């Protein structure tokens, strides 16, 4: 993975928000929570991820740098809510009612499952597939699954099997 250095001021802003949300959770739930470790090692189009057993939040440094305040306002509470839901309720659905409760009631942040950020700068190679009605973009991971025969993608509109564009031309 290519190393991307996150400016110190941005790291400090991340920690300020993290600590503020931890304080809110501690007050609401009448319990002190340890500060999770923050790493800037998330890759691909994922903004962040929570490693539950390690009490760690991984952040995508490129998406953080490109979307600074919106990233901090949405992704930090999102990932922290995963850790807190696991801590309080055990193994639950990733974006289930417990996670939603923490997001909306404790953090007062809309419980969105996905981020709104442009991923052009972090997106890997795409492969064009088509069906009867439209063109589809598959990631390299999806494409490799098709090549290995692990999966067959079907268009949700027309119900036809997706075919690689290059295959159609040969």
UniProtKB/TrEMBL annotation:
The active site is at residue 79. Residues 16-165 form the SprT-like domain. HAMAP family: SprT. It comes from Xenorhabdus doucetiae. Keywords: Cytoplasm, Metal-binding, Zinc. Binds 1 zinc ion. NCBIfam families: PRK04860.1. This is Protein SprT. Its main location: cytoplasm. It is found in: Cytoplasm. One of its GO terms (biological process) is response to stress. The keyword Zinc applies. GO terms for cellular component: cytoplasm. Its cofactor is Zn(2+). InterPro entries: SprT-like_domain, SprT_Zn_ribbon, Uncharacterised_SprT. It comes from the Bacteria. One of its GO terms (molecular function) is zinc ion binding. Belongs to the SprT family. Gene3D superfamilies: Metalloproteases ('zincins'), catalytic domain.
